[in-house]
Amino acid sequence: MLDSTLQETYDIVLRRNPGEPEFHQALREVFDSLEVLQDRHPEYKDQGIITRLCEPERQIIFRVPWVDDKGTVQVNRGFRVEYNSALGPYKGGLRFHKSVNLGIVKFLGFEQIFKNSLTGLPIGGGKGGSDFDPHGKSDAEVMRFCQSFMTELHRHIGEYTDVPAGDIGVGAREIGYLFGQFKRLTNRYEAGVLTGKGLDWGGSLVRKEATGYGATIFADEMLKARGESFDGKRVAVSGSGNVAIYAIEKVTQLGGLAVTASDSSGYVVDDKGIDLELLQQIKEVERGRISDYADRRDSATFVSGGSVWDVPVAVALPCATQNELDADAAKTLIGNGVLAVSEGANMPCTPDAVSLFREAGVSFGPGKAANAGGVATSALEMQQNASRDAWTFEYTEKRLTDIMVNIHRTCLETAEEYGRPGDYVVGANVAGFRKVADAMIAFGVI
Ligand code: NAP
């Protein structure tokens, strides 16, 4: 139950944004944490901060026409939600997936505001994407789509305005096509306009690894806070994309045994530990399916459909997509003795699953804290672009690690300060919100 003021605001937002369940879910999760702030900060209410934060500063929806390999005209829908620029230029990825709609982009943009605030770096929140599905498309089709998408998007972005990056379905190939078209249309080599770039043309070392590494480092910090470590522990990872692959790599470096990976067709269990090289060959080079992994590895079994969370583990790293871990999965994980859950993906755990973890004393790292390493390293890429510099892997990874350790500490200290010790959800929401709110107050009503 929310208090009456928050409930009233929440009801208005639901009425103004019908049919957007993921957006409502993301708002509700933050609203639940804000009650602890109300008494200490009446100025937030007086200045209408929550009401203003619920409304994106700008929402852009556009047609993306392109021609497929058969010569047929296709039309997709493009989105960019420039959500909040209190702390810096809008910053957040582009998602290309058939499920993308305005509500999904708004949920991701809303989360991004607080995530970016938690990094301590000067970046606002935004998100974008399209219902274009890159699966099964040729490189030439992906290129034509990206060029058409950027033909509209370029009017709205810039290193001081809005800086997109990758997300589901947008990796190095897509960023290359998008940057190439931006450069062509503007006649400017503005490296800081996109992050996740190739290393030869303005990209940063560690950006590719950053989200997966960061979510695992966050899990490691949560384990340490309870006197544990990854050493010898079995770990379940979902997904087999950018975040999942590098989460698996970091788990292995920290002494854990990552035993699963998945995609939308099912999951593999490998009791000897996921062979990272084989997984990368199949997913990054061949763009194959996760079942191919089991076909080529004796110790692995492929399970079609089913839930990757049925596999007994001590740590769970959901790294695929929103709402992929529900209450039943949480009950199974708790029954199997899970100690920590760190969200590599955005909002992968349903609200019921999160409640069950918190009630059972499982350390739960919400995505806006746990997966902030990706956007933090994007901001480090922007720093390198601005100074026309390129940092070493070791230096950049050290910066990432420090940022993740700092986010973890901030969440714990804030939760303690507001009377909810050990509650990373409250810690992340309150700490992320306060900085944004204070900047908005400083700027006046705009
Ligand atoms: P990605 O490289 O495209 O990989 C996504 C993975 O998730 C794929 O294995 C995909 O399988 C799987 N997946 C997607 N939708 C699914 C569904 N409905 N059911 C089951 N599996 C599904 O994307 P990514 O960059 O790793 O992003 C994964 C998550 O992390 C997203 O929530 C994203 O918002 C979040 N995130 C990413 C970054 C980043 O830096 N990339 C930063 C912060 C947060 P299929 O190939 O079968 O679809």
From TrEMBL:
InterPro entries: Aminoacid_DH-like_N_sf, Glu/Leu/Phe/Val/Trp_DH, Glu/Leu/Phe/Val/Trp_DH_C, Glu/Leu/Phe/Val/Trp_DH_dimer, Glu/Leu/Phe/Val_DH_AS, Glu_DH, Glu_Leu_Phe_Val_DH, NAD(P)-bd_dom_sf. Gene3D superfamilies: Glutamate Dehydrogenase, chain A, domain 3, Leucine Dehydrogenase, chain A, domain 1, NAD(P)-binding Rossmann-like Domain. The keyword Oxidoreductase applies. SUPFAM superfamilies: Aminoacid dehydrogenase-like, N-terminal domain (SSF53223), NAD(P)-binding Rossmann-fold domains (SSF51735). Pfam families: ELFV_dehydrog (PF00208), ELFV_dehydrog_N (PF02812). CDD domains: NAD_bind_2_Glu_DH (cd05313). Residues 204-444 form the Glutamate/phenylalanine/leucine/valine/L-tryptophan dehydrogenase C-terminal domain. GO terms for molecular function: glutamate dehydrogenase (NADP+) activity. Belongs to the Glu/Leu/Phe/Val dehydrogenases family. Homohexamer. This is Glutamate dehydrogenase. The lineage of its organism: Bacteria, Bacillati, Actinomycetota, Actinomycetes, Micrococcales.
